Automatic annotation (TrEMBL):
Pfam families: NAD_binding_8. It comes from the Bacteria. The lineage of its organism: Bacteria, Bacillati, Actinomycetota, Actinomycetes, Mycobacteriales. Gene3D superfamilies: FAD/NAD(P)-binding domain (3.50.50.60). InterPro entries: FAD/NAD-bd_sf. This is FAD-dependent oxidoreductase. It comes from Gordonia lacunae.
Length: 473
């Protein structure tokens, strides 16, 4: 029987192990932490009984992942929960744009921009599964749906700042801008329109759900499926060198390129080694979890319908603050992504105390405390929020890195999303998962298709490993 070891028990490492196990491979996962899950964990961070997500919180690509659908994670206890509105974007005027799973309902709330929103996202949402089949994999492949790609390409290649001009109202521009800002990059560069298009389209196709009980429930379901398929997991095992690895036919690494270099660098071909050394980490996040008494007192009450709320003001302000952050400036009003997961999943609350999740985009390696800036951004659109805070837990960039070695410098998306690295990660290659050492593959979010709890980085890396194993029979 073919044997495999997977280093790293994040969602992609577990997905790789699961796909191997389902194909008859004897697979073992080694995780340095005492628990698996990486960015998909949850627990009590503020007060007893109140459940917070440690990192990833909303899962438009998770609920639509073809691999999770094939596995059937719902059979292992996973339950998706949807809020009434997927996303809200309040403005200083008191107005707010709302993203609903229904593109018609979204358009109805955007006034004169409703028809333009439908024209921009309607075809992408309707054919999202076909589009995702080509985009959520390595760039270099024979496209299965060339017509869909041809339709998406001219929009995706634009800077987000250019695409936003399609909309006439600030409500629609800001709603798109907050979604585009998930890129964690300045928005005036080519290709920066692409992620906003994909996330909005996936929302209209599947919504932006949360996992009942917290994102850790996704991990628990994957672990259940893995064990059901014969896979084994060992925690508290740190792999620092090749000597720490058990003998196996194939090895998959749910690690950053820098970590891969530290283990296999001496064996990797010089050109691949150079590519990995050039790989750039992305910008940083500063996360704060709040426990609050009651709900957030939004100036616009529609914000209380949304699972996700983007706090960044107008599109022009978002573009400016993201440009400043990319230049290393910690602005007074950073872009903040806020989560009200309890709106869809009230079991996360305890006795009227609700969990609030928020993180700010901060300059790379920021070593300060951004809690006050985050609180001020919330207060800007919800006066009186400060008075409802019961407890606070801040997680800075160094703490994020300490909690997960893949979050280098507080980079929670696995590498900079700009230039060619946005589409050719971790390097330009026909098989970007192969590291140049026979039987060894990278499967982290630094590989295609990138960040998200969709498991597809692990799935595609495992497919590469299976092809290698079959070629040796």
């Amino acid at each position: 029987m073919t044997t495999a070891v997977v280093v790293g028990g994040g969602p992609n490492g577990l997905a790789a192990a699961l796909h191997l196990a389902r194909n008859g491979v004897d697979v073992q996962v080694l995780e340095a932490a005492e628990v698996v899950g990486g960015g998909a964990r949850s627990g009590e961070l503020t007060v007893p009984g109140v459940i917070h997500d440690h990192c990833s919180a909303f899962h438009p690509l998770g609920v639509g992942s073809p691999f999770w659908a094939e596995v059937g994670l719902e059979r292992y206890g996973l339950v998706w929960k949807w809020p009434d509105a997927d996303c809200a974007h309040p403005l200083d005027s008191g107005d707010a744009g709302l993203l609903f799973r229904s593109i018609g309902a979204t358009a109805a709330g955007l006034g004169s921009d409703g028809s333009r929103w439908q024209a921009m996202f309607g075809d992408l949402a309707e054919h999202f599964d076909d589009l995702g089949d080509d985009l959520l994999r390595p760039v270099v492949h024979v496209p299965g749906h060339p017509v869909r790609l041809a339709s998406f390409g001219p929009r995706a290649i634009l800077p987000a700042t250019v695409l936003a001009r399609w909309f006439r109202t600030e409500r629609a521009r800001a709603l798109y801008g907050g979604i585009a800002a998930h890129l964690f990059s300045r928005l005036d560069r080519p290709l920066t329109a692409s992620l906003g298009l994909m996330i909005a389209a996936s929302g209209h196709r599947y919504g932006w759900p949360v996992a009942e009980g917290g994102s850790g429930a996704i991990t628990a379901a994957i672990v259940g499926a893995l064990r059901d398929s014969g896979g084994k997991i060992e925690t508290g095992v740190r792999v620092s060198s090749r000597a720490d690895l058990p003998r196996a036919d194939i090895t998959l690494l749910d690690l950053s390129p820098a970590q891969v270099l530290s283990i296999f660098g001496d064996e990797m071909p010089a050109r691949i080694r150079r590519s990995y050394r050039r790989y750039r980490i992305g910008s940083s996040a500063y996360k704060v979890d709040f426990a609050i008494d009651g709900d957030i007192p939004w100036s616009n009450p529609d914000c209380l319908r949304a699972g996700t709320v983007h706090l960044g003001g107008s599109f022009a302000e978002i573009a400016h603050t993201e440009r400043q952050r990319a230049a290393g400036v910690m602005v007074s009003r950073p872009f903040v992504l806020l989560g009200q997961q309890y709106i869809a999943d009230p079991g996360r609350s305890a006795g009227g105390i609700n969990p609030i999740y928020a993180y700010a985009h901060v300059p790379r390696g920021f070593d300060g405390d951004a809690t006050e800036q985050i609180v001020a951004q919330i207060e800007r659109f919800a006066p009186g929020f400060r008075d409802r805070i019961v407890a606070t837990a801040g997680t800075g960039t160094e703490q994020l890195h300490a909690s997960n070695a893949n979050f280098a410098g507080g980079d929670i998306i696995g590498g900079a999303n700009d230039g060619l690295q946005m589409v050719l990660r971790p390097r330009a290659a026909l098989d970007p998962y192969a590291i140049g050492v026979p039987g060894v593959y990278i499967c982290s979010q630094a590989s295609p298709p990138g960040a998200g709890i969709h498991g597809l980085c692990g799935y595609h890396a495992a497919e590469s490993a299976l092809r290698y194993a079959r070629s040796r029979r």
